[in-house]
Structures are given as C-alpha cells and as structure tokens.
Design a protein that fits this description.
single chain, 515 residues, alpha+beta, five-stranded mixed β-sheet, four-stranded antiparallel β-sheet, 14 strands
C-alpha cells in the first residue's frame, strides 16, 4: 500500500510543479537595479553602434521661445483631433473700420482684414511677429495656406516657412514641400510632443526612436527607425511597448514600457513541462499497472480461497455422513443406553445435524450464489419469534445466559439460519470477553425485531469501529476474532443494523420483518 501512496504523491507533486512553474512565468515581475542598468547599457550600446537617420535640432528649427509654442502639444489638439478651419472660414466678415485698415493693429485684426479681402496682402514680417498661433488654435501660416491665395500655396513658400506651422499641421501639408526633419516631425503624434515638452531623453513613436543628446544646451534628438531599436532589443531578450497608466510594467521609462522577452524561457519551460507531463503519465501508467496486477492477484486469491472452501466443504461431507450413519445406528439401540449417557448422546446428535446443515448451506452458497451480496438469504415465516430465540439459546443452558422474551409474541419473516449465527456470535463474545450474567432481551416495535445482548463486563473500546479495527484475537478468544465482523456484515445484508453501548456492555441487533 505504501508504494501506491508514494507513486500517487509523486504524480501529484509533478502536476503541482508544472502548475507552479506556469504561474511563475505568467507573473509580472519588476526590474531590479541591475536590470535597469542593463537596459541603460543596451540603449547606450544602440546609440554607439547605430547610425542615426537624422538629427532633429529643434533649437535651430525653432530658434526662440516664441517659436516653441509651435511644438507644444496644444493648438488643434487642445480642441479636437480633427481640423475645424472650414467653420472659421465660413464665418461672416464684420464691417470695415478705419482702425482695421491700419497694419499696426493687433495681428488678429490684420488677419481678419486679409480674410475678408479688405486688404490684398499681409505685411512682410506678419508670420514672424508674435503670436504665431491664432486664437482658434491654428497657426497663421496654416491659415494662409488654407486661404488658397498666392504665394501661400506655392511649395517653395511652404518649404521656406515650415517653422511657422504648428507641428500638428505638418501632416496636412503637401508631402513634396516637407524637408527631411519636418517630415519626421509630421509623423509624430501628440503624446510624442508631450514627451519632448517634458524633456524626455528617450522617445519611442510608432515610426521613430528619438534619443536626446546632452552635449550642449541645444535641444537635439538623434532619430532612428523604431524597428531598428526593437530588433536590437530582441537580440538581448527585451522588447518595448507603449506604456499605459495602470498597466503592470517590468520597467517604465517615460512613455515606454520595457518587458523581458520570455520566448526563450517559455521554450525551455515548454520542453520541461512536456518532460514533466510525460513523467506524470508514466507514473500514473505505472500505478495503473500495479493496481491492475494487485486487483488480479486479489481476485486470484479470492478464487483460491473459495476453491479451498469448496474442497473443504466437499471433504467434510464424507465424515459427516459417517457420523450420521453411526448416530442412526446408536439411535436404534437407544433403549439399552443408560439415561445419563443417552442425554449426552442426544447433544452429540444435535451437533452432528448442525454440522450437516452448515456443510449443506456452505456448499449451496458456493455453487449458486453469484450476486454482489455477502450471503444468500432465505426468508421464511416463523410462527413464534420467542420459540425461535429459545431454540437458538438452548445450547447455553446453565451458562449464566438469561432470556427475556418478546412481551407479545408474534409471527415474523426472517432468515433463521443467519440470525442464529449472529445471535450465537454475540452471546459467545459476551461469555468469553464479558462478565456473567449475560442477558438476551427481545422486543418488537413497528415490524423491527430488537435483540439486546448485555453482559456486566467493562469494554475498553468506545465505539463499534474501534472494536472492528482492533485485534480481537486475544489469549481468551476461542476463535479467530472475526465473529463480530461477520455479524455486522450479515446484519447489513439483512437490511438491519448493529449498535454498541458501554456501561454495561451491550450489543443491540435490529432486524426488519421481511414479509
């Protein structure tokens, strides 16, 4: 039994180990200081070994603080991601005033005059004078382009004035009018410009990877293709993705989230899990084979014992037959046998016939009984339950066994043979292990026969399970210590029950009226 438990525990341990490793791999860890340093070294190595696509010199492209409002993540993004200039251009024009005709007035009024065609052209320095962005959030340069007038729709004019457009408007300009650096800016989105405004050193957009240089006070970003950086990370067991607030991240850097590339580890785990799984299956197969062999062995042992019992029962028939012939011979001469010897002879005769009935019952059971029950029960009507119990206790006369019959005797359907075995086992146990006198009390209530066997001894056990599980074959025992177990199993087959009580020791047998 121990080897079965050991094998089962091994299989369970292997299964739990597989689950444990799987959960650990799925668990989100956080980067240690050593791993953060490793990521920084990877970024530096990438800069040293990779030639940048371009260098965005924002200080040169937007040379003053006034210009820097053009790269702030505001303008049309502060209101909507869709341009709404159509509504502005369809706005009705106000009446001309003398004040509006003067070019020295504020920039919005000058633009209104130009939009409503009250003036034909804008001052030469109109786009350079602050503010560069209209109150609507759109740059004056982009408004000029949208007006459709010359020279604002000319590619050369657009190319020469790109630094007067807000960066969010560059993507709406003709592609042939964008130079390389402005073309890169046109592919950045609002989140990227927010990172630039915060002064982030590393910025990963959908198309580019920007790295801020710290050699001087100018704002410069080395620009690489994002795919270059991602491929570089893959070779070093890392990958990067956009960071979202609330998400778990191995290492968070600005808008980037660095994660470990666990595909190699997963491959190792996949191979390990297959090995563990196959090991578990082998252990379970081994257990199944052993259990099958054990069941087969037990079945063979049961058949062997049953065969031995058949042989024993068959062989007993010859000496029993001889004893019966001798008993018959002596019975014919009973008139010449002294009375004191005759009484003892009659007891011997009763035991011989009892032995004959036992052999016949055993042989009949072994030959015909094929059901799942323990015994083959044969119920018959007993006209007097008191007479039946008195006959069963006849052998205990003079052995301190007292019988208290049913107060109102009646007929009862019961298997007398097996009831006799149960009652005699309980009485003999009380005589051997208990203390005289032994009292047998019978009563019937609602078609249930109750037989109590009580002695005056003290039982060391607290309940029936303790008695059945203990070694009952002691020095004073005349049998194999199996009588009580047999009684319990027979009573269960008879759809009854056996109860045990202490102080005084009492066994209560309950049997139904199987009419």
């Amino acid at each position: 039994m121990r080897i079965y438990l050991l094998l089962i525990l091994t299989a369970i341990t292997l299964s739990f180990s597989t689950a444990y490793f799987a959960l650990n791999l799925e668990k989100n860890n956080f980067a240690t200081e050593k791993e953060i340093s490793k990521i920084a070294e990877i970024q530096q190595e990438f800069q040293r070994t990779t030639t940048p696509l371009a260098v965005l010199d924002l200080s040169s492209m937007y040379p003053s603080r006034v210009y820097f409002e053009l790269i702030q993540p505001i303008s049309i993004y502060s209101k909507s991601n869709v341009l709404s200039h159509d509504a502005y251009f369809s706005k009705s024009c106000s009446k001309t005033t003398e004040r509006m005709s003067k070019l020295t007035f504020e920039k919005n009024e000058i633009w209104e005059d130009f939009r409503c065609k009250r003036i034909s052209k804008l001052p030469d320095n109109f786009f350079e004078v602050s503010p560069l962005i209209h109150d609507s959030g759109i740059s004056y340069a982009y408004f000029a382009f949208l007006s459709g007038r010359e020279p604002f729709i000319n590619p050369d004019w657009i190319k020469g004035n790109l630094n007067f457009f807000h960066v969010s408007e560059l993507k709406f300009l003709p592609a042939n009018s964008l130079e390389q650096n402005f073309k890169i800016l046109s592919k950045l989105d609002k989140l990227d410009f927010e990172e630039i405004a915060k002064g982030q050193k590393h910025i990963l957009s959908s198309d580019f990877y920007l790295v801020k240089t710290e050699k001087d006070l100018d704002i410069k970003y080395q620009t690489f293709l994002s795919t270059q950086f991602e491929n570089f990370l893959k070779e070093r067991s890392f990958f990067v993705k956009a960071y979202k607030v609330g998400d778990k991240c191995f290492y968070h850097q600005g808008s980037q989230c660095f994660e470990k590339d666990s595909r190699g580890i997963l491959e190792i785990f996949r191979q390990s899990s297959i090995i563990i799984f196959l090991s578990s299956m082998l252990v379970l197969l081994f257990i199944s084979i052993i259990l099958f062999q054990k069941i087969k062995q037990q079945k063979h042992e049961e058949e062997r014992k049953k065969h031995a019992l058949r042989v024993l029962t068959h062989e007993l028939r010859t000496p029993i037959t001889n004893l019966l012939l001798q008993v018959e011979t002596i019975n014919k001469q009973s008139d010449i046998i002294p009375s004191n010897i005759l009484e003892e002879f009659l007891k011997i005769e009763g035991e011989v016939y009892r032995l004959k009935r036992l052999a016949e019952k055993s042989m009949s059971y072994l030959q015909t009984h094929e059901s799942n029950s323990l015994v083959a029960l044969e119920y018959f009507q007993v006209l007097s339950i008191n007479n039946l119990l008195q006959e069963m206790l006849e052998d205990y006369k003079g052995k301190s066994v007292l019988f208290s019959p049913v107060s109102e005797d009646q007929a009862f359907y019961v298997d007398g043979y097996w009831l006799n075995i149960c009652l005699k086992n309980l009485v003999e146990n009380a005589l051997v292990h208990g203390l005289a006198p032994v009292t047998v009390t019978a009563s019937i209530e609602k078609d249930i026969l109750k037989i109590e066997v009580q002695d005056q001894g003290i039982c060391p056990y607290k309940n029936l399970d303790e008695i059945l599980n203990s070694d009952r074959s002691g020095k004073n025992s005349t049998g194999l210590g199996l009588g009580l177990s047999i009684v319990q199993r027979i009573v269960i087959e008879m759809n009854g029950k056996l109860l045990f009580f202490t102080n005084p020791t009492t066994f209560s047998l309950y049997v139904r009226n199987n009419q």
